[in-house]
Fold this protein.
Amino acid sequence: MVSAAWKISSGAAIYLPTMKSIRVLDSHTGGEPTRLVLDGGPELGSGPLDERAARFRRDFDAYRSAIVNEPRGADTMVGALLVPPHRAGCDFGVIFFNNVGLLGMCGHGTMGLVVSLAQLGRIKPGRVKIDTPVGAVDAELHANGSVSVENVPSFRTAHQVAIDVPGHGIVRGDVAWGGNWFFLVAETSRPLTLDALEALTDFSRRVRQAVNAQGFPAVDHVELYGPSPGTGADSRNFVLCPGQAYDRSPCGTGTSAKLACLAADGQLAEGATWVQESVIGSRFTARYRWLDRTKGEIAPTITGTAQVMAEATLLLDERDPFCWGIRA
Ligand code: PYC
């Protein structure tokens, strides 16, 4: 949407610049924000969502940056572009993106999307099917406001691979897909607490660089896990997202990847509940069903809560040197 006008201010006519406007609804899921783009985003046309995501990446990266990067956004912000679905039976389509690029799927973002659609009166409690670039997901808005997401098929592709991390030596971890690619490491040297954020971030960045260089270039999330310091959670994690920000939520796709590892190791039975806690203490509950035991493929379901917190119109003034965001 574009607006430009001569306006009368204090008796004088002043020219207000042409501005693009983008209507958004902001939510957070366990502390991790999602900015749902309702109108004014890039026009990606029709067709399969992975093709539209590629178009977004190729031709409209400035929109991504304008919406989620500073000064309008922050490194933690995940954008969710609402689009018409393509896969049969889907009610909505969504393309997730963040401060450095596009995401395959996003668990916390899907919960944010569902509560935002409810806030807009576009859905009621019940089931809704959502198309994403990496597959369709089934979400359910429960009467108590929580949201369950049956994620895309998740699986582990490498078990306890040894990675040489400069400054740290050999680090072992699993490579798994949960809608994004993860390297999962049992954290034993640093506490999974907010006062250790710098050390956790620095270590995870080095791990990611080493994992990428040593045979796994697609891994863009690092998930450190260990016991929860409190009661009632099976595990706490620290997830480094593709930029330098960490996930404030327990990470839906990361929890899916974790479940794929637990299932492959026989450490969590089909249908049993797993409580995953984030480094800030927010929680998801999760369970899985087998899709293919031979291939180690599971269908994880992640449940959590999200809150709508702002509705806004972003204004893009071409005269602003940072109109399209501060790019990393
Ligand atoms: O919840 O899947 C997730 C997620 C991915 C990146 C940030 N959150």
Remarks:
- The pocket of pyrrole-2-carboxylate is lined by residues 32, 78, 103, 106-108, 180, 241, 247, 249, 251-253 (CB under 6 Å).
- The radius of gyration is 20 Å.
